[in-house]
């Protein structure tokens, strides 16, 4: 369904959003990060100065007891098989060399198409939507009468990370019974709440204003967090239904108690009046992407947490570096002093910005925040295993000019899914070494001119190293303790000279090759007038020319490929750019040499996933770039090896205003899953800009339980023939 322009309300003031991404999304999701100066003002070595001077999360599920051309690990390390041996596939994931899911690329959809478009031969259904009841006592969604208590028992808002795990820990396939796990990143009050005094403050004349009241804010807090929901289907390849009643269904919200663990747990930097131990914290927020571990837990990244806290002022340097400001867009400080930065709560913001681990198989297990993995604006974390069984996590800090990180566990994975093994494996992310990436290019600086033109050696490429921050339990950063490195990780990474990247989002590991892929979504601040940081070989664009006009910044993003020099624990690597994204008709795009006229236009790569055959799938946030490809966001497949490397093909397109999140590609079942986040973002409850996914038409009388406006939704795509 397309909403005619004359039926749309005026957009809110849009002074800074680039391309299609709306000003509303910018304000709510990332606190207008692109409106503020990039907080990384560190005097890191400029990149130009530098120049002149095995397993993905899904593919490894169930492999803790698989042997096929595998390295065998016994209790004493690599050696003869033993009763408690761990066997890990070496180099290639066994059994998958096919072409993967077959489909014909769809056409990019204009930005006002309010439809989820899939290839011929496929169809789609919702699995679960914002407001669907999942816990006892939850009633059928009634958006006219939403309450905090109901929201806490319903599926939350703005689903982002997604996985569907086998119901039985250790099972290899999802079978017919699964655990759907989703993040709920942020809320949009204008779309969620009716324009009544129940949810909005009134002025002196009794008129409803656009300032949400305490009741609405309480609902917002209940709509954040995560959800676990049981799903069932008649057979693999058939659509799932969620189970409204199940003992495993669970909501995590701002009232859920978390354990803080790792080297910074109990630090003075994490203590508050409410938690003098520095080891317990209520809630998680702005949970963006994530990852599923080989031992069957789910990781979630606390991303733009800064937008929820009034700065306390105790550490102005850290406040500035993390973007914690004098005001918030959420206004929760009016309800709870911990958001206000006042006396006793100076450290509350330090208790957010972590990687969270949730065990969906154990509804009673408290979720954990892992300080060993550092504190920054975590997009997510994806874990693979080294040949000797160490857990290796790759992580992006999603901000312009921020960094890519790696964590290597001290302990090694335990085989199988026994109670003991599961308990042991859930400690792996509690202790280990933390590194940040430094990329060095191999082409002359003069050849990286900001246009995106490929240098004369034929590639954006070079070498790199993982710079140590914490190794062996000791700080490797001069003047900073371990606790300081982990709580103020950005400041530590600045000191060691990490490479400033163009908003590193998801970082995913190929199940076939063990290579690592980093989605750099865009950077509006890397421009020709930026005198601090210019184009670099791993971030080579600062402008593009469209129709004779110059558009400053890296508007379309790119994807970095990292090749470990040896095992995943190696501190050395080589790298190259897989894609320099954008309208292939515009100069300065690059698709690993694949003919540009044959690729789908793609912009702003965000979440990444692999299919079992080793094809990379990219979901986008902000797709469009230039007027020549102002299109809805989507999901794209791109092979990364062989003659098809770089052949980007669009699989689906999400509805008006939405972003594509959390892709899962299950080529064995012929199914694809995505989270459709923030459909109709610029609309309001009274004047929706999307009717996805239920399409109760404007002017029609909704039946009980129907909602005129959009609902963030988990979608399954499956074959019709
Ligand atoms: Fe929440 Fe980095 O996207
Ligand atoms: Ca080069
Ligand atoms: Ca994201």
Give a written overview of the molecule.
By secondary structure, this protein is mainly beta. It has one domain. It is built from nine helices and 38 strands. The model is unreliable at 1-19, 45-63 and 65-98 (pLDDT under 50). It binds MU-OXO-diiron and calcium ion (CA) (2 copies).
Distance, first to last CA:
25 Å
Helix content: under 10%
Number of helices: 9
**Structure classification:** mainly beta
Question: Which ranges are low-confidence, i.e. pLDDT below 50, for 5 or more consecutive residues?
Answer: 1-19, 45-63, 65-98
How does the overall form come out from the CA principal axes?
globular
**Overall mean confidence score, pLDDT:** 88
Strand content: 25-35%
> How many strands appear in the DSSP assignment?
38
- Sheet of most strands: 10 strands, antiparallel
- Our Rg estimate from Cα atoms comes to 24 Å
Distinct compounds present: MU-OXO-diiron, calcium ion
Number of domains: 1
InterPro entries: PhoX, TAT_signal
Protein name: Phosphatase
Pfam families: PhoX
Region (Disordered): 521-542
